[in-house]
Amino acid sequence: MRVLLDTNVLAVGMVEHALGLNSPSALIWQQLQLEEFTLLISAHLLQELEHAWSTTWFRNRLPPDKMDRLRTLLLSRAMMVEITQEVRGIASHWQDDLVLAAAVSGNADYLVTRDKEFRLVGEYSGVKVRTPAEFLIELDAVE
Which of 63, 96, 111, 124 could be a cystine partner for 103, CB 3.0 to 4.6 Å? Predict the structure, then answer.
């Protein structure tokens, strides 16, 4: 199963899992480490992640060496996707269209986001857009 995690799921999930929390995003990060799915990522999403990780919220929760280890783990598990499909006017924000374009370009089965408006897309070009909790339920059903 090929999955693209929106930055708001991936960045938060990494930190919450490292802090021992059991949020849906943290559980998805755990499932990634267990290789329950293939993570897709684009250069655009990596840039968003780097920006998120540089914010005070993240810096106050994890020391730099721990963040570096998480970054290394992420890059070792993720499959880089080049955006080859253009998506416009599907999501409520152009930035979300770019995330959806990465998912479509990578032949993702799922795009997981915490953004309620983005979730309203439902499905586009074979990519199911789900919340973290919804994705965990569907992932469990596949196993």
Answer: 111
pLDDT per residue as tens digits for the range 48-60: 998 988 899 888 8
Query: Domains in the chain: how many in total?
Result: 1
- The 10s digit of each residue's pLDDT in 36-46 is 999 999 999 99
Is 0.90 surpassed by the pTM of this model? yes
Residues 82, 30: Cα–Cα separation, whole Å = 25
Q: Which domain holds residue 34?
A: 2-142
The mean pLDDT value for 61-68 works out to 86
A 10 A CB-CB count for 3 gives: 25
For residue 70, the domain's CATH number is 3.40.50.1010
